[in-house]
Amino acid sequence: MKHIITSAGAALEVWFVTGSQHLYGEETLKQVAEHSRQIAASLHEAAAIPVNVVFKPTVKTPDEIYQVCVDANTTKNCIGVITWMHTFSPAKMWIGGLKVLQKPLCHLHTQFNRDIPWGDIDMDFMNLNQSAHGDREYGFIMSRMRLRRKVVVGHWQDEQVVAGIASWVRAAAGWNDWQGARFVRFGDNMRQVAVTEGDKVEAELQFGYSVNTHGIGDLVKVINEVTDADVDKLCANYDEQYKLVASLKKGGDQHESLKDAARIELGLRYFLEQGNFKGFTDTFEDLHGMKQLPGIATQRLMADGYGFGGEGDWKTSALVRAMKVMGSGLQGGNSFMEDYTYHFEPGNNLVLGSHMLEICPSIADGKPSCEIHPLGIGGKADPVRLVFNVAAGPAINASVIDMGNRFRLLVNEVEAVAPLHDLPRLPVARVLWKPLPDMQTALAAWILAGGAHHTGYSQNLTAEHLEDFADIAKIEFVLIGKNTNLYQLKNELRWSEIAYK
Known about the structure:
The protein has helices spanning 26-45, 62-74, 95-100, 123-128, 131-144, 159-178, 200-207, 216-224, 228-241, 255-274, 296-303, 314-326, 439-448, 463-473, 486-499, and strands at 13-19, 52-55, 78-85, 105-109, 150-153, 182-186, 210-214, 243-244, 279-282, 307-310, 334-345, 348-354, 369-372, 384-387, 393-402, 407-417, 430-435, 454-458, 476-480. By secondary structure, it is of the alpha/beta class. It has a six-stranded antiparallel barrel. It has a five-stranded parallel β-sheet with strand order 2-1-3-4-5, with helices on both faces. Strands 7-6-9-10 form a four-stranded parallel β-sheet, sandwiched between helices. A hairpin with a 4-residue loop joins strand 15 and strand 16. Helix 6 crosses helix 12 (314-326) and helix 6 crosses helix 14 (463-473). The radius of gyration is 25 Å and the shape is elongated.
């Protein structure tokens, strides 16, 4: 069973399309088809590729190419097309099809045989195995048409080749999930904040998802209709899943607060389900009628796959959702995150990432503790939240920024570390990381690139996944990683300004 399916339960698929022409005769075309079928079957069986890989008949004419591209567009569960030129396929034949293709495109530059058969190679073999220049002809027309696509090079049975295709497939799945997706804002953005704002109309044009606002009263009405029986059932679930502090247990002096939190979760979940929303935002400045801020509710909804962004940050909510889809089936989790404070110890610089309530337990190291503590902002009752540390290991932080004339996807590779000491008085989920290549370079680069203070944090995705995603979305991608040099990065940003004008 593949990891990623549609919300309706249909299996997602990518199509494997091979190009050739009639010049070589039927016998050669039969061999082309058989080789293509074997490659598609091998990719389909690869555990790393999380959707079905579907073989399509060899395309040999402009009409056949055009038709398979149109069919890909109109087949709902097809999320992308992998193309390969087994022989020479004159690229003018591809213009019509590539002009109309709306699905993500991956160009696999491979050949059926791994090695040259030194003692047996003849012109028949050469005529059949022409990928070395057939793919160059095809690559030219895509470059001439200025098409964004992923190019994966190497033998189709090589693990690195499969991994490169798998990265693109996951990015294509995230993109597919965005098409027609709905995100809801409860209230507006946090007042006077710049980076969480953005052009929602342009986002819908560029990304395919919509963002619309509902008043808090719409949500409060649903919360107030939740039954006591359902609240009690969810409270019992909290007790089973988490280390519930004594005061929140049944009979404890703060158990009513747990019930209030459960009622908020049930109401919020119902609202999202009824509206077919894939993510949401809220802000502590605009929660009139709610008894407490939605802490544990937001954390658990994120763990179930919903996107979230704090203080009205709809761009991060959508990004977190896409990252959760891309990471489906992989070990580790994805969460809303915020760079909160720094540790500037010489030789051991660290960032402490957290948020006042809303970090997803999918990234927790061990069983979270369910606690209640005062919150100095928001003017509400003490909110219930899950408190935990996050495991050490490689991770990324990603941010989508509206630059006015374009969207930018900024990624920083980081290395999460175990806490140096206990944090007994910090009542929130938290993670410590070392940003690559080093603290000074990474932080300066992030600020120069206009990176937001909110991010999507991932334990199971890499920069390659996000770069593939940016290419599919046709937006700018900026990477801060082990090889980042500030002089080079500043030039990159300057060149991008020219390129996107």
